[in-house]
Design a protein that fits this description.
By secondary structure, the protein is mostly helical. Helix content is 56%, strand content 0%.
């Protein structure tokens, strides 16, 4: 692997020795000033098509600029146009192609990768594909992924996700059978289709992994979230459902409130109170007053409007006297 920072530092040193500004070097090479700046900062590498002119301008060799290594030797053959002949004579590995890929055009990387694998394509692994994924086309990567057996290493799937098509990634993820591995899936959620996310939720629900589903919540639609909430047994309280509250719509939140009040678990509503609308909170207060169990609603006081708090205070004073509103005072 090329040392990008070392190469950048070397470009900067040689440019200054040649008494050139970054702008002057950029103009001569026909690239942007920002490109040269990124090279020298170690953020990127010069395109392979610019290397011969760059080393000539800087008065050095490619070896001196990039360091002497197998990758540099291979790169020089790519530049000279005889890389495939060289590859037939020498044992050029997938790692060598991956190391040079940042300097190559996508079609060059694909062509050289094919050359390496033409006799051993059955040995390709997901780790091999990770090395070239940023430097080849989505379609090319999809084709190689389709040739693999099921990829069970979730970390490999996560590494490949940004470079695969949604269809290819969906296929890989849905074929995961181990719920323990599926539990890491939140890192993949931004890249998956709604259909795949729904299937994953079903698998995690069957495995009792509600905690893992919370990580997927920002990417789930309202229908899926409501379906999930309705499956949860609320007899013993709201539990981990609290973690889903920020992503639930008013309709689903109202269902939760109604279910909890029916079960007599008013205290549990405190956990979702910050996400309830004014109408629902007012309804809770009215219900608590009618049933004479307002003490169970004390946890929602911080989320009530001033008007509702004043109404509650007035009702409590009428029924129980001034001492009954001591808990309300901090919020009035």
């Amino acid at each position: 692997m090329f040392d990008v920072r070392r190469t950048g530092k070397r470009i900067a040193e040689l440019r200054k020795e040649s008494n050139m500004t970054q702008m002057e070097l950029a103009d001569i090479l026909g690239v942007s000033y920002q490109a040269v700046s990124n090279w020298e900062r170690g953020n990127s590498m010069p395109d392979i098509s610019k290397l011969p002119e760059l080393v000539e301008l800087l008065g050095c060799t490619i070896d001196e600029l990039l360091s002497d290594s197998n990758e540099v030797t291979f790169l020089k053959h790519v530049i000279s146009g005889d890389a495939k002949e060289y590859m037939k004579q020498e044992h050029v590995t997938i790692d060598t192609v991956a190391a040079t890929a940042p300097l190559l055009k996508p079609d060059q990387t694909e062509s050289l990768f094919n050359e390496v694998l033409q006799e051993s394509s059955e040995n390709i692994t997901s780790s091999d594909l990770i090395g070239i994924a940023p430097f080849v086309s989505e379609n090319y990567l999809d084709q190689w992924i389709s040739k693999l057996d099921v990829v069970e290493d979730i970390h490999d799937i996560i590494a490949l996700a940004p470079f695969l098509s949604e269809k290819a990634l969906d296929h890989m993820v849905i074929n995961l059978t181990d719920a323990g591995r599926i539990s890491h899936i939140s890192a993949l959620a931004p890249f998956l289709s709604k259909s795949s996310l729904n299937q994953l939720v079903d698998k995690l629900t069957e495995a009792g992994s509600l905690h893992d589903i919370i990580g997927l919540a920002p990417f789930l639609d309202d229908e899926t979230l409501e379906k999930l909430v309705r499956k949860v047994d609320l007899v013993n309280g709201i539990g981990e459902i609290t973690g889903l509250a920020p992503f639930l719509n008013d309709q689903t939140l109202d269902y939760l409130v109604t279910k909890l009040t029916t079960l007599g678990n008013l205290r549990e509503i405190t956990g979702i109170a910050p996400f309830l609308n004014k109408q629902t909170l007012d309804r809770l207060v009215t219900m608590a007053l009618e049933e004479g169990n307002i003490e169970e609603c004390q946890g929602i006081y911080p989320f009530l409007s001033k008007d509702t708090l004043q109404k509650l205070a007035d009702e409590l004073v009428k029924k129980y006297g001034f001492k009954s509103i001591m808990g309300l005072v901090p919020f009035l």
